[in-house]
Every structure is written in C-alpha cells, then in structure tokens.
Amino acid sequence: SVVVIDFGSQYSMLIARRVRESSVYCEIIPHTADWDSVASLNPKGIILSGGPASVYEANAPLAPSWVYDSGLPVLGICYGMQAMAHQLGGKVAPTSRKEYGHAVMQRSAGDDPIFKDLPQSMSVWMSHGDQISETPPGFRSLARSENSPIVVMGNGAGMLGLQFHPEVVHTPQGKTIIENFLYQICGCAPLWTPGNFVSDSIERVREQVGGGKVICALSGGVDSAVVAALIQNAIGDRLTCIFVNNGMMRKGEPQAVRDTFQRHFNANLVYADATENFLGALRGVIDPEQKRKIIGEEFIRVFDEEAARIGAVDFLAQGTLYPDVIESETTDNSVSAKIKSHHNVGGLPEHMKLSLVEPLRYLFKDEVRGVGLELGLPEEIVYRQPFPGPGLAIRIIGEVTHDKLNVLQEADAIVMDEVRRNDLYREIWQSFAVLTDTRSVGVTGDFRTYGHVIAIRAVSSEDAMTADWARIPYDVLGRISNRIANEVPDVNRVVYDITSKPPGTIEWE
Ligand code: XMP
Questions:
Q1: Is 220 annotated among the ligand-binding residues?
Q2: How do residues 74-113 score in pLDDT, each as one tens digit?
Q3: Structurally, what CATH architecture does the domain formed by 401-496 represent?
Q4: Of 96, 161, 200, 248, which residue is most buried, by most CB within 10 angstroms?
C-alpha cells in the first residue's frame, strides 16, 4: 500500500482515488500521525498532499520525521513538495505571481523513472503561490516551466517533488506519472482489484462477527445492497435485512426492491410497509428540515420495532463509505455552515446495544460498484442513481399528502421512463420530478384548467458536491412534458430547472 499524508488539500481524496484506480491500496492519514499507526499498513511509499498553507508561516503543517527517516520513497505534490524542500534544507519562496491553470513543463537532460514512457514536454495543471527557489542538498531540478526553474525535483533515490497536480484530469499524463511512482519507484504491484477487495472484506466481516447475528437496513440503493451481499457471503443466513417502506419511494420501487432481493439474495428479509405511519407523522409539516427529522425518527421507531421481533442480534451493518470516514476524521464541522442534514438516521436507541459492522468503510463509491458487480448484483442496482433517504417528501414542496404523492409518482415515473429509453440514465447523476406548490392556469379542449406545475430536475455531477444541469435533448424534454401534461391528472404545466449547484442544490428542499 501507499499512504497519503493530508495537509488539507481539497485534492487529497482525489490522490487516494487515483492511486486505487491504479490498483494499489491507499489510505489518507493526518499529518500528525505517528509511525505506529501507519506501520500495520506496511506502506511501500508515501505521498505528501497539497494544502493551503505556506511553509514559512508559523504553525505550517509539516511531515512527521518518520517520513524522511523511513527510507521509503516519498512523492511531494505542490505544498507537499514545498514541505519536503523546506524540511530537507532547500528554500521556498513566494512566486511573483500566483500560478493557476495550464503550464507547459520541459524535462531536464537525463532520465528519471518518474518520466518513464513520457515525452520531453508535457502540459500540467498548476495551482500555487509558493515555489522552490533552491533544491535541498542531493536534489536536482528534473523539469522547468516558463515561470519556474524547478517544477519537478528529485534526489535519484526515491524522493521526488512535483509543483503541479498529477491527480487532476487537467494534467493529461498525470496517471502515468502516478503509476511510475507506484510501480517504478515504490515497486508496488497492482493487487488492489475488485476480486481482492471482495475477499478482503469478507475476511474482515468474518473476523469481526464470529458466530454472531447481523441485521441491516435495505434501502434499494447500491450501498446497502452491496453491504447485504458482502455480509451474506461472509456469514450466510445469520444475516437478516429489514426493508422499511416509508411510502416516499418512487412508483413501483418497493416491489422492485423486494423482487430483486428474492432473485439475488439468499438471506432473510423483513418487509415493513409503514407508509401510513410516515404520512401521519408528516401531516401539516412544510419545513424541509422538519420533514427530514420526522422521517429519520420514524424510521428508527419502525426499524427498532421490527428488529425486536427478530430476537437476539449482535451487529448492525451500515454502508459507511471511505469519504464519510475521512471527512469525519479530518474536517472541523463547526466551521462549515449547515445547508441540509443529509444523515438520515441520527443513531439507534441505546437499548439495542448493537455493534457496527461497516464493510465499505475503506471503499470509494466506484469501488463499491466494483464489489457489487463482482458479487453478481445486477447493473440496475449497481448503477442506480442516488436517491435521498427522505425520498419524495423533499420533492413535494409544502405538505405531503396521499394525493400529491400519487401525482408526483406518476410524473416521476414518466421522467425515468424517458431517461432510460433515451439511454441517458447512466450519464445523468440524478433525474427526477418535483411537485411545486404553484398552480397555474391552462387550457384543455375548450376548458380552463387550474393545475399543478411539475418541475423536471436532472443534473450531471461527480460527487454531488457540485452539479450542472443536464443538457437533455429538447426532443426528450418535449416528450416528457407532453406525456406528463397528458397522462398525469391535475398537472397542466411542466418546467425544466436549469440551475447548477452552486447556487442551487440538487434537491429543491
Ligand atoms: P443537495 O440537494 O444538498 O443534495 O444538493 C446532494 C445529494 O444528497 C442527496 N440528499 C440527501 N440524501 N438524505 C439523503 O440520504 C437527505 O436528507 C438528502 N438530502 C439531499 C441528494 O439527492 C443529492 O444526491
């Protein structure tokens, strides 16, 4: 494996993903970590991330001394390179002008394994305000750009610094540079494959659970399905899945989830249709955060009740992913403003006394999909668009009622049908209908109507942090609009939401 020492760059997670995409296991660790906490990972190399600081500021984060004493190869990226230069006796100085964006780098004479199979000149992506003005003893400049004589530095013995960001797509040869570090310099083998991480995860679950019993909540999404599949593979029918239908799912979804389960799982399923409980609890509620809170609490109540009926259980399985783990370890939540509470379940009641099993704790989303395919789950689950826990409740503006749910489910089913038919499902991050609380005047035949306005929302995104409205072809939008206005009673107008995030969010509530 390789470890990434995090200096607070927005790109640290991306570095780790790139390393994993090159089939080498990688974990992100804080810059304060001691060697004992890292030794068990048996790293073959270390990457120092970028970061917002300047090395000559007081309290600037630096790499722990074990990094340089370990004898392991080290790759410093941007701020990581500057920290390395500073700590090993070189000099770092502000550039006369901050440099953002594309730059062309020219390699110096002589070969270095970091440039294996690469041309003399390459386009790279820069984002820095400081640069190396003098290499540390034993290092030389391996590449320069117009603005900077030291874009890459190395000591010929595994220590390297890059002023640019090889992890971003704007550095076209970045992948090869990272792979050269991993394979040529660290001597890593490409062992991190779906097959291996499946067997790895199954092993970990067996070790943790022993002869115990596990319950897990099924939602219809990819994460909970993969959790269930992994655990079932590890412990067989000592797993029971609980599927709570909160009534806020898409048309036909509860049945589809149960059908898929029957077809692909060999575990116990408890199905609880709690639609009426949820609708009752939501009566009269219009505030979005209040809706989320009520749905979260109601879920726990129903889940707890169903779990009690199963009898003694020891573990609760959850689909926590690696980015959630890193985020809760490295970010200071007190400083970022709360936009929406996305955590659906505040935590189970004390009396349940269950230990957590989190078999996806070390995986990125694309790796979770890889596990799903490896375990034989169908593509319709593995590539399912994300769907929020509170479901249609946060896509009905205002109070949630039976009637409005029916209207939205019908309109949404048409959106999804057309998106699938036109092969847009996989390229769009999320697509759905929203029932606005506006009514507008229309005409059907010779009669005036006063009906609902449906909004269509479709976005492209990588991670839901930012998103752009999807450029769905006009023809498809036209068909969606026509069908909704004709087929869904009480709807006489359809609009398309062309807001990106920011400033909008993906959901309307
Ligand atoms: P926003 O609307 O904040 O959404 O741009 C970002 C992503 O999060 C999903 N989302 C939620 N997921 N519970 C969830 O499980 C929630 O309360 C919730 N709110 C938003 C949204 O669908 C998008 O993928």
A1: yes
A2: 999 999 999 999 999 999 999 888 888 999 999 999 999 9
A3: 2-Layer Sandwich (3.30)
A4: 161
Fold classified for 194-382: Rossmann fold (3.40.50)
Alpha-carbon dihedral sign for residues 104, 109, 112, 118: positive
Reduced to 3 states (helix: H, G, I; strand: E, B; else coil), residue 494 is strand
Q: Which atom of ligand 1 is least distant from the CA of 344?
A: 13
Q: How many CB atoms are located within 10 Å of the residue 427 CB? A: 9
CA contacts within 13 A on the Cβ side of 408: 27
Q: Is 24 annotated for ligand binding?
A: no
Residues that are catalytic = 78, 165, 167
Was 267 annotated as part of a binding site?
no
Contact 170 CB / ligand 1 (< 6 Å): no
Choosing from 294, 324, 507 the residue with most ligand 1 atoms within 8 A of its CB, the one to mutate for a pocket test is: 507
Measured CA to CA, the distance from residue 2 to residue 8 in angstroms comes to 18
Q: Widest CA span of the chain, in angstroms?
A: 87
User: In the chain, which residues fall in CATH 3.30.300.10?
Assistant: 401-496
Which residues in the chain are classed under CATH 3.40.50.620?
194-382
Q: Distance between CA atoms of 506 and 469, rounded to whole angstroms?
A: 9
Q: Which atom of ligand 1 is nearest to the CA of 501?
A: 5
From the CA of 219, how far away is ligand 1's center (Å)? 14
Fold of 2-185: Rossmann fold (3.40.50)
219 CB under 6 A from ligand 1? no
Burial of 352 (0-12, 13-18, 19+ CB in 10 A): middle
Q: How far is the CA of 391 from the centre of ligand 1 (A)?
A: 9
- 137-186: per-residue pLDDT in tens? 999 999 999 989 999 999 999 999 999 999 999 999 999 999 999 999 99
Q: Could you tell me if the ipTM is greater than 0.95?
A: yes
| Ligand 1 center to 342 CA (angstroms) | 6
Tell me which residue has its CA closest to atom 9 in ligand 1. 388
Model-level pTM? 0.88
**In contact, 216 and 226? CB cutoff 8 Å:** no
Considering only CA atoms, which of 365, 367, 386, 369 is closest in space to residue 377? 369
